Amino acid sequence: MDIKALAEKYKDYIIEKRRWFHQYPELSMQEENTTNAIVKELEAIGIPVKRFDGIYGCVGELKGGRPGKTILLRADIDALPVTEQTGLPFASKNEGRMHACGHDCHIAMLLGTAKILYEGKEELAGMVRFFFQPGEEIALGAKAAIGQGVMEHVDTCFGMHVWSQLRSPYFNIEYGERMASCDSFTLTVFGEAAHGASPHLGRDAIVAASSIIMNLQAISSRMKDPLGALVVTIGTMNGGQNYNIIPDRVQLEGTVRTFNREFQDSMKGRILEIAENTARCYGCTVDLQYNCLTIPIVNDNQELLRICKNAAVKLFGADTLSNMKRLTSSEDFSFLMDQAPGIFGYLGSCHPEIPGSEYSNHHEKFTVDEEILHRGSAITAQYTIDFLEENQTGNDTEHGIRT
Amino acid sequence: MDIKKLAEKHNEYIIKQRWYFHQNPELSFQETETTKVLKEQLEEMGIPVITFPDYNGLIGVIKGGKPGKTVMLRSDIDALPIEEHSGEEFAAVNGKMHACGHDCHMAVLLGAAKILMDVKAEIQGEVRLLFQAAEESGHGAVYYIEHGILDDVDAIFGLHIWGTLDAPKFNLESGPRMASGDKFKITVTGKSAHGSAPHLGHDAIVAAASIVMNVQTFVSRVSDPLDTLVVNIGTVKGGQLWNIIPNHVEFEGIMRTYSRQLRSSLEDTMRKIVCGTAEALGCAAEFEYMPLTAPVINDQEDLNRIAVNAAISLYGEESLSGMARLTCSEDFSKFAEKIPGFFGFLGCRNESIGAIYPNHSDKFKVDEEGLHRGAALYAQFAVDYLNEKAGDN
Asked: Among residues A247, A269, A292, which one ends one of the domains?
């Protein structure tokens, strides 16, 4: 099966779909029309589709002609609350919403992959699950879909992101830590109010909160392995009533990012310990609300990386692979990788001849070099075929999504 | 000259005036009717007045029969935006209240004016009666000083009615009596960045927290441990979103002390700590200092002595009572920064009549037994001061 040729054949289709989805962006967990359009496309290809209960997004399932493992391919489908300023003829028609993170491309590429794989389905040694995921930007979609069994019977998962800091048409699929975890927290410090002239009669929540902020710095500087990365950011600080009153309440909101899962798990306890004990020094108390939004993405499966790299090289030559520094931003694909071995790659979208492609993901002028899209579809299809081929089981394990 | 007797003679007048002012409170900078009535009262006594074309309050001028120095007696005249719940039959019903006793101050000083007019021929010099507007604002005194009313005045005396001091005791202690109060605002400016990329920004919240902590050393390490200093950061507001490196934090606060010397160093020391800390963390800070009131310090030995002796000569040693210095403020201090001054307190607390609430309470109530004594003290102080200083020059 000549995947490269098939990808060329569907290139126009992929670009056309990307432009359509780009015009009709929908926010996280509100992807109703997007889902309907995807379902229509998959069914038109001949792939049966299942929807979820209470959330948007869908799963297409393609059963190969031969028995084998199950691979899940994931595209996220939600857009951002950004007012588009690209000036493109196919710019967003939904005011205040924009596919500024390239999820329009992800949808189109995965539909392209579906077309390619459908043509060669008799040769496929296993099952392909096309997962169109809602709510990635707010890190709710992956968790919700897992709750509805999207990862059941899945042997491996694969995801790819178009990335503006990577030159088109390079592909990055690299070993190790790739994206950081993301936790959010709200820390409230409670003191006791008093007249501003009588500090001894109150308990100053601003001094306690400030001391907590300073002591939290020691997590990065003294408690973390210096070779690992950690970010603790207090993004907002609000408190007090009046200049002349001892402040009795301060609220801090912040985020924690790291690439180490164990360290991430320890952070709630560390923050609480420092906050509680520091507050106690000033006679204050604290309340900590801590949420894990995403876990880190770590490409630690050498076997999957080898298959994927070979697939890309087979299609586009050795120089199609490029290195890229790990990112401190986050992806909820990590929750899928927590359920089954998986890898996550990046497709460079920035090209000097494409005006606007230099803007970073999430920017109101973000756009991509569309020449990469069919290549993304091809790499995904080739990797799928090669993975299933290399991991033949000989017998058809019962698989299929519950929903 | 029996000032004690004269004060008793005018007792009824004093209480009547107090009731009138209590029923007709006016807020700071709005004391137009109050000023008008005060003018009428003084002119009725035959006292010429100095008024101000664009400002409330006034000065009555009593020229004694003999030459000498000039002493100023001061009363404030403004009320507070408090709904009165004192239960008095003459309570105000306009949502404003003389909850700090300035109604008493006016009545007492009018009483003193009557006494002084009775003994005018014997006075060795000049007495000026200042009825000051907008004390509660913290800067009501500035206008008068800028208009030169202290230029030919040798000393100033003020008396405050006080809710935690038993009536009709005087408190006439030397030393620091009321704290200074100076507002400040700190603005910390950093550089924002994505919350996951602190190295690309300058975190204004960490800088601000560091400033708060470092400011604590002003009290603990920089100022004299014998001096009282309170630095209160009362509000903090900063950042945009949990996930963005914050680029802006604002604080508001107030500093209080009893030391003039320490007060004069507040702005410099704070600015050094604030701006230095911010700079160390890659941010910039602005320290805005808004001086409001100086401390009230009775540091003129002669005035302290004259005040205490005046009270003793009128009502004996037992009329005096001790009282801890107060952490609140008075803009009388602005006058006392320019010329020698003395500031005392007159007790109005009396449990048996329910006068147990502090000044500024909506239930603030006054034992009026002390009011004529206050008038007597004003008059006696003026007479004794002018007598003692008559030979100088």
From this structure: A292
Q: Check: CB of residue B150 under 8 Å from CB of residue B338.
A: yes
The pTM for the full model equals 0.78
- The residues of B whose Cβ lies within 8 A of any Cβ of A are 179, 181, 183, 194-198, 203, 205-206, 208-213, 216, 230, 232-246, 249, 251-254, 256, 327-328
Residue B49's SS3 state is strand
Please give the DSSP secondary-structure letter assigned to residue A370: G
ipTM of the modeled complex = 0.74
Pairing of strands B66-76, B155-166: parallel
What is the pLDDT confidence band of residue A403, given thresholds at 50, 70 and 90? very low
| Three-state secondary structure call for residue A316 | helix
pLDDT, tens digit (0-9, with 9 covering 90-100), for A62-91: 999 999 999 999 999 999 999 999 999 999
Instruction: Say how many CA atoms lie within 13 Å of B242 toward its Cβ.
Output: 16
Closest alpha carbon within chain B to A179? B196
In this structure, the answer to whether residues A304 and A167 fall within a common structural domain is yes
Q: Alpha helix (H) ranges present in chain B?
A: 3-9, 11-23, 32-44, 102-118, 142-146, 204-217, 260-280, 301-315, 332-338, 371-389
Are A207 and B183 in contact (CB < 8 Å)? Answer: no
Q: Which domain holds residue A148?
A: 3-177+296-390
**Measured distance CA(A188)–CA(A184) in Å, rounded:** 13
CB-CB contact of A76 with A162 (8 Å): no
Question: Does residue A159 sit in the same domain as residue A187?
Answer: no
Residue A402 lies in a domain: no
pLDDT at A218 over 90: yes
CB contact (8 A) between residue B241 and residue A235: yes
| Contact: B236, A199; criterion CB under 8 Å | no
Nearest CA to CA, how far is A266 from chain B (Å)?
18
Q: Which residue among B252, B278, B293 closes a domain?
A: B293
Q: Do B233 and A240 touch (CB under 8 A)?
A: yes
Are A235 and A346 found together in one domain? no
* B246 contact residues in A (CB cutoff 8 A): 234-237
First-to-last C-alpha distance (Å) of chain A: 32
- Tally of structural domains, chain A: 2
